[in-house]
Amino acid sequence: MKPVPDPASAGERLGPDGRLDRGAVPAVVNGNDEYALEAALKLTEAHGGEVTLLSMAPATAPETMRKALAMGATSGRLVTDPALEGSCTVSTTRVLAAALASMTFDLVLAGVDTSDGVSGVVAPGVAALAGLPLLSYAARIEPDPAAGTVRVRRITPTGYDVLEAPMPALITCTQALGEPRYPSLKGIMAARSKEITTASLADIGVDAATAGGAVATTRVTGTQAPEARAATRVIRESADEAARQVVEFLAERRLI
Fold first, then answer.
1. Most exposed: 7, 95, 126, 153, by fewest CB within 10 Å?
2. What span, in angstroms and rounded, lies between the C-alpha atoms of 1 and 39?
3. Cis peptide, bond prior to residue 26, ω within 30 of zero
């Protein structure tokens, strides 16, 4: 679970160093991570177990994690360290994989990407480093605890695949798994007393010199505002007449 700048605020901005200014707008739970959490909660309701949040984030992250706890997660684990500032996806992947090594689990669920980075590579990288089977773009998750396996219906451009792997495994979750629930008043009250443990890089056995902006594998080299949008043409006619005008409009502007 990643705290990200609230996309609805429209106030995201880059700092002088080319990195996202995370203090400019309030943080919220990453949208796709909420779908993963909803899937996790449904699995525990059907099969038992607990949901533990894992996040690599600034020390203020518990404020955001409380919402996920209010939705029904059991507890949280936060990896936070000043040395992590400016970390790239490679560092993030290494840190999360190291954190998982000290945890016991059947399934790791993650959103397909985050609204601030939109890379979609961290979860697959964690699976690779942690030696876990990766089942991506899940639209349905069907664990078989007795057999120790999990089956996933994975969305593809032409339909879906059915994948099966032994547990533990890592699954990236799509919005097809169902809308996230709203925290109830009871859940909000209970979240205040749920445990969030914190760990530094030293606690999970990661050398601080291998993370952070100083060793980032990517950097912003420049930015520019998008070109102003051209004037639009709105067609409000019958279907046949609208289709004729659209075809003429496109024909006039074809390149070949």
1. 7
2. 13
3. no
pTM higher than 0.90 for the full model?
A: no
Q: Residue 183 to residues 48, 82, 190, 191, 197: CA-CA distances in angstroms?
A: 20, 31, 10, 10, 21
Question: What CA–CA distance (Å, rounded) separates 5 from 221?
Answer: 22
Q: How do 3-5 and 27-29 pair as beta strands?
A: antiparallel
Give the Cα separation of 30 and 172 in Å (integer).
14
Structure tokens at 252: 């006039």
Per DSSP bridges, beta strands 149-156 and 159-166 are antiparallel
What tens-digit pLDDT sequence spans the chain (256 residues)? Answer: 999 988 888 777 788 877 877 878 889 999 999 999 999 999 999 999 999 999 999 999 999 999 999 999 999 999 999 999 999 999 999 999 999 999 999 999 999 999 888 899 999 999 999 999 999 999 999 999 999 999 999 999 999 999 999 999 999 999 999 999 999 999 999 999 999 999 999 999 999 999 999 999 988 888 888 888 888 889 999 999 999 999 999 998 887 6
Please state, in angstroms and rounded to a whole number, the distance separating the CA atoms of residues 124 and 93.
Answer: 9
Three-class SS of residue 3? strand
Return all residues near 178 (Cβ < 8 A) that are at least 6 apart: 35, 38, 39, 42
